[in-house]
Amino acid sequence: MSEEPPKEQPVKVFAGAVYECVRCGTKTTQEELSRLPEVKCICGYRVFRKARPAVVKQIKAV
Ligand SMILES: [Zn+2]
What we know:
It contains one helix and three strands; from the N terminus they run ββαβ. By secondary structure, it is mainly beta. The chain has a single domain, classed as Single Sheet (Rubrerythrin, domain 2). A three-stranded antiparallel sheet has the order 2-1-3. The protein binds zinc ion.
């Protein structure tokens, strides 16, 4: 029997995706959320909605 160590499967997430707490509006990134043991805002709420990505294209009007 071959014994292979379980490989870590990277979770497919959108890098840089920003989530916003629907209660207090605190924005957090997917990266930050994945670091936590559970998806939870600093205010204790667990409902997030997807916000716009941090990178915003802005066109300068001259
Ligand atoms: Zn919150």
